[in-house]
Write a structure and sequence with these properties.
alpha/beta, 412 residues, 12 strands, 2 domains, Rossmann fold, 42% helix, six-stranded parallel beta sheet, 14% strand
């Protein structure tokens, strides 16, 4: 019987454009909980419409200090509590520690304490029959851990994706209070087996509270239209234009294919700090009609594009990933993938079945060769069918989010 409240801590959702996959998860959570309340830390002018019945609580934002300097100094003022000082000593012993890592520690202390106070003063008084869920393994997990010390009855859960899980992928290559922030929670939920393996290997702990629940993408109205012989090939990539995504490798791979005389067009969805540089690189290496930078687009618009436009291959060249939802989206309409086996990619891309796994450190020539091996394969249509079947069996939103929501409800 539905009689619980679910509090969800986000970075900004429903504000901004991030955390789009939580949006797809919410209706399934609402089926299992009487109330679902989203509590963002940040906001901006762009606000998305949430699914029916989902509540928004902005009180946490309102108790936060507004300036970075104020938050840093507040964290510094709390540094000498025993637990915080122990973490400072851990950071001092880490090799290659940067000033940013110290800033990150102070910020985490400030936000975690603010969250602990918020839970104590605003949420607990509303009733104990609740589950507290952080969509990220960030300061929220620390704040929930501190809350549980005085209120051990609290039920707490967090998902773990990429930069909130792998320290080497985190800003400053450091995640404060790890692994203690995870061990105290009722459930930690990596989205890939590789993520749980990383935790166990890195911290030499069993993490008995861990349970794999993959993300997923919704059913689509139809599959991607099949490529038509005699027409130029069409390749798509979808990612931020940042260093970790290595889109420059895709640009040079496309230049290699152009030199070989392949007729194609490459479309990229996404924006980021390297936008100007990468667009200039593409301009200098490819004819204008070969490339189309579409910028930031909603998932809904990207999926609409897949319904209307035939795509031969989806391309990924990232140096680090969780399990990319962009690949799940491609598979959900039957588009095969070329990608490196980093993070959880090897758990979704089956080599030479629904795509092609290139080297972890690929050259543009490696990517170009992989593209040709797939699109020139006499059994190319089987790649498309296998991609769709992989989504259907392992990354379907209805299946994955239903199982996750029931697990959450059973904690209460």
């Amino acid at each position: 019987m539905k009689n619980q409240t679910l509090y969800i801590f986000t970075h900004a959702y429903p504000f901004g454009y991030g955390e789009p996959f939580l949006h797809a998860e919410l209706p399934y959570l609402k089926k299992e909980f009487e109330r679902v309340v989203v509590i963002p830390t940040n906001s901006d002018e762009h606000k998305r419409t949430m699914p029916a019945g989902i509540e928004l609580d902005l009180r946490f934002q309102k108790i936060l200090l507004k300036t970075p300097v104020g938050r840093f100094l507040s964290g510094l003022g709390q540094l000498f509590s025993s637990e915080n000082f122990r973490e400072a000593k851990v950071l001092m012993k880490k090799s290659g520690t940067t000033g940013y890592a110290w800033y990150k520690l102070m910020n985490t202390i400030y936000y975690a304490k603010a969250l602990e106070v918020f839970v104590r003063d605003f949420l607990i008084p509303q009733g104990q029959n609740a589950v507290y869920y952080s969509y990220w393994g960030s300061f929220h997990t620390v704040g929930m851990t501190w809350s549980k010390k005085n209120h051990p009855e609290l039920k707490t859960v967090c998902r773990l994706h990429r930069s909130d899980l792998y320290e080497y992928a985190a800003s400053g290559r450091y995640i404060p209070f790890r692994p203690g922030d995870l061990q105290a929670l009722d459930k930690i939920v990596p989205i890939a087996n590789e993520g749980l393996d990383y935790l166990k290997k890195t911290y030499q702990q069993p993490f008995a509270n861990a349970e794999i629940h993959r993300l997923g993408v919704p059913d689509q109205p139809g599959k991607n239209p099949d490529p038509v012989a005699g027409f130029p090939h069409h390749f798509v990539s979808c990612s931020g234009l940042s260093e970790v995504k290595r889109v420059h490798l895709i640009i040079h791979a496309m230049a290699e294919l152009h030199k070989q005389g392949l007729e194609f067009k490459w479309t990229h969805f996404g924006d980021g700090p390297l936008s100007t540089e990468l667009k200039e690189m593409a301009k200098n290496n490819l004819p204008e009609n070969k490339v189309d930078f579409r910028g930031q687009m909603s998932n809904r618009n990207v999926m609409g594009f897949y319904q209307r436009n035939s795509v031969d291959l989806f391309l990924n060249a990232s140096s680090s990933e969780g399990i990319p939802v962009s690949i799940m989206e491609a598979f959900s309409v039957g588009i095969p993938v070329v990608a490196p086996p980093v993070g959880g990619i090897r758990e979704i891309v089956d080599h030479q079945k629904n795509g092609y796994l290139i080297d972890v450190e690929p050259s543009p020539a490696d990517i170009a060769r992989a593209v040709l091996k797939v699109i020139k394969n006499p059994d190319y249509s089987s790649f498309r069918e296998s991609a769709y079947k992989k989504w259907e069996s392992s990354f379907r939103a209805k299946t994955n989010f239903t199982e996750f929501a029931k697990m959450m409800a059973n904690l209460g």
